[in-house]
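Hypothesis: this fold can be encoded by more than one sequence.
Test: take the structure tokens below, design a sequence, compare later.
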């Protein structure tokens, strides 16, 4: 009936809004995680060590969750079977290494360029990476063409980054900023792949928590191996900080990965990235305004450049969202009785 169809559409719309809000919340979590991991890296004097600790804390929390929560334990128990049956390409596990790279970039770049500038660079990479993911149809989605509107969005994103960087470039050595900025942008490009790969794993395992645990296990192994390789050369670390909040970055990372793995199958890579970008931009500016850290710089140009970046990411996603809507299967309307 028409009334029943309308109610179903409203429920679906409300559900989608909820998932979008969750994706925005994941962006806010990523901002706070960036500040915490950056502060831990500065305290220890070593970004890789800070990243390893962050991943270790997150992995330990997920293991405890799997031990004491039966539902989580059941989905984690499916991991060996899923991997043995090849339910998805095994190279999707590289998403865990991407997660390690994200945490490392936070610990290494945030103390140098601040959360706001780090996020703007990350957003630039996400805009380009999400457009590429849509073009190739990663994860089984229908490919979307790269048209003039989406290219314009990416160009405006880059302009927004340059605008946001300009206050720092006026009184700092730009060459010292280029490397952490480039690293942040490159990591952003990989985040679309990470979200899609984790979403595919979550569907195969039967739970987002299992996918998050695998992600953290792979990332922790990668970081631990890097630490072991560095041991012969000697690693001079400062004492561990005694304040508890330095160690919750891994827990926030668990929530970020889990949420994106949950919502990406419902929203797709592009909308998930766009919503997370909104959360990152708002959260990063709030952090740098109300809780400024060493190296952060918020001026009118930083704010306007960030807003332009947000607008550009939305512009780049418009045509993709329309294509997805037109490509979605039509739901037949029940005939009137």
């Amino acid at each position: 009936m028409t009334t029943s169809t309308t109610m179903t559409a409203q429920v679906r719309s409300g559900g989608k809004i909820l998932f979008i809000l969750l994706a925005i919340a994941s962006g806010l979590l990523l901002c706070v995680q960036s500040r915490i991991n950056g502060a831990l890296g500065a305290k220890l004097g070593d970004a890789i060590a800070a990243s390893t600790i962050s991943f270790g804390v997150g992995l330990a929390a997920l293991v405890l969750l799997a031990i004491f929560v039966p539902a989580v334990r059941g989905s984690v128990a499916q991991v060996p079977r899923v991997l043995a049956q090849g339910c998805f390409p095994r190279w999707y596990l590289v998403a865990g290494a991407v997660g390690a790279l994200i945490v490392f970039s936070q610990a290494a770049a945030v103390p140098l360029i601040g959360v706001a500038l780090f996020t703007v660079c990350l957003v630039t990479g996400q805009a380009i990476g999400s457009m590429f993911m849509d073009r190739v149809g990663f994860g089984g989605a229908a490919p979307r063409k790269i048209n003039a509107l989406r290219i314009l969005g990416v160009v405006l994103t880059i302009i927004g980054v340059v605008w946001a960087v300009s206050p720092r470039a006026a009184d700092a050595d730009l060459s010292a900023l280029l490397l952490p900025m480039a690293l942040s942008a490159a990591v952003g490009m990989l985040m679309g792949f990470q979200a899609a790969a984790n979403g595919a794993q979550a569907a195969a395992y039967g739970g987002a928590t299992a996918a998050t645990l695998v992600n953290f296990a792979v990332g922790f192994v990668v970081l631990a191996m890097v630490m072991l390789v560095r041991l012969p050369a000697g690693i001079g670390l400062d004492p561990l900080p005694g304040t508890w909040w330095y160690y919750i970055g891994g827990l926030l990372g668990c929530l970020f990965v889990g949420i994106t793995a949950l919502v990406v199958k419902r929203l797709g890579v592009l909308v998930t990235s766009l919503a997370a970008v909104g959360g990152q931009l708002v959260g990063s500016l709030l952090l740098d305004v109300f809780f400024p850290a060493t190296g952060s710089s918020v001026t009118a140009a930083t704010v306007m450049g960030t807003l332009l970046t947000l607008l550009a990411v939305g512009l780049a996603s418009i045509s993709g969202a329309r294509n997805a809507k037109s490509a979605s299967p039509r739901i037949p309307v029940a005939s009137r009785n």
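Residues 2-44 form the longest helix (43 residues). Residues 288 and 298 are 7 Å apart (CA to CA).
Hypothesis status: open.
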